[in-house]
């Protein structure tokens, strides 16, 4: 009996979600195909019906945040209005939020996987760059609308968000990590020319 329409895309999505959680938590090298497929509720044998290799899957996992229109925010208490005329400040606050800090499994892959990317093949590096440039484009678009557009500043804000979260997660002191996140958020909003009129979380 043939599978219903959309079955293949649904299964592929389950594999990507399982891999994202596991890669974010344990890193690329420490996760096996058996673990990925088990997390998706599937057997290892089905993997090669959807991906040529673990590296191919890794490339798709990397391209999940700013480049995937079907991506759904899973950070509790964080709402992002994708139709808003001022999307960038929302993204900065969400990115550097305590919810993103705590939810390792649903992290943006640019935070959880940069070290793995530097050791990976060209396709993974290209996927990482594409996600970063998509984030920069979003920031730059909002900055241009407010009359303060600057590609250099948009890149700096994106790097501040990503790097700030990476360093915060590496700290042993939660108070120091929170202080760093708040500082990065404040500076990122100021660089973009957005009024910081909400309490930092």
Question: What do these coordinates show?
Answer:
By secondary structure, this protein is mostly helical. 61% of the residues lie in helices and 0% in strands. The protein has helices spanning 7-26, 33-39, 54-62, 87-95, 98-102, 109-112, 114-118, 122-145, 151-170, 174-192. The mean pLDDT is 84.
Which terms would index this structure?
201 residues, 0% strand
Overall pLDDT, averaged? 84
- Strand count: 0
Rg over C-alpha atoms, rounded to the nearest angstrom: 18 Å
Low-confidence stretches: none
Write down the overall geometry.
Answer: globular
Number of contiguous helices? 10
Structural class: mainly alpha
What is the H-and-E element order? Answer: HHHHHHHHHH
Q: Helical percent range? A: 55-70%
Percent in strands: under 5%
End-to-end distance: 52 Å
Largest sheet: none
State the gist of this model:
With 201 residues, the protein is an all-alpha fold. The chain has ten helices and no strands.
Task: Give the SSE layout.
Elements (H helix, E strand, L loop, with lengths): L6 H20 L6 H7 L14 H9 L24 H9 L2 H5 L6 H4 L1 H5 L3 H24 L5 H20 L3 H19 L9
Helix pairs in contact: 1-2, 1-3, 3-8, 8-9, 9-10
